[in-house]
Amino acid sequence: MKLNHINLPVKDVTAAREFFETYFNFRSEDIKLNDTLSVLKGEDGFTLVLMSEKLNQNGNHAYPDAFHIGFFQSTEAEVTAIFERLKVGGIYLEKEPQLIRKTFGFYFRFQDILIEIATGG
C-alpha cells in the first residue's frame, strides 16, 4: 500500500506553498479562496495539502515533538546540495549535514514543521 497524500496545517499557507515549490519541486494544483488551503503535487505524484491552522476545529496548533516529514536522497552530494540551496535562500539551518544513525543528513524547521533531509529510503 502506498501513502498518497498528507495534510499539514501551517501558519502561513502562501509562505509554505512557496517554500515547497521552491525547494522541493512541488507544483500548485489547487489554491482555495483566501489562501486557506493549497493542494500541491510532487514530482512522483505525491499530494501535499497545506491547510491554514485556523481551520483546525479543536484549536490544536502544534505538532507532537517527534513529528517530522522527510525527503530521502540517493547520495550525500544531493543532501549537501539541498542544504546549500536552503542556506542561500535564507532558511535557518542549525546544523550542517552529518552522519545520523546510518544515514547522512540534517534536520531543520520551517514554520512549525520539522523536516529531515537524508540519504536512505
TrEMBL record:
Species assigned in the record: Mucilaginibacter corticis
Phylogenetic classification of the source organism: Bacteria, Pseudomonadati, Bacteroidota, Sphingobacteriia, Sphingobacteriales
InterPro entries named among the record's database cross-references: Fosfomycin_Res_Enzymes (IPR051332), Glyas_Bleomycin-R_OHBP_Dase (IPR029068), Glyas_Fos-R_dOase_dom (IPR004360), VOC_core (IPR037523)
Transmembrane segments: none
Boundaries of every VOC domain copy: 2-121
Organism domain of life: Bacteria
Pfam families: Glyoxalase
Listed name of the protein: VOC family protein
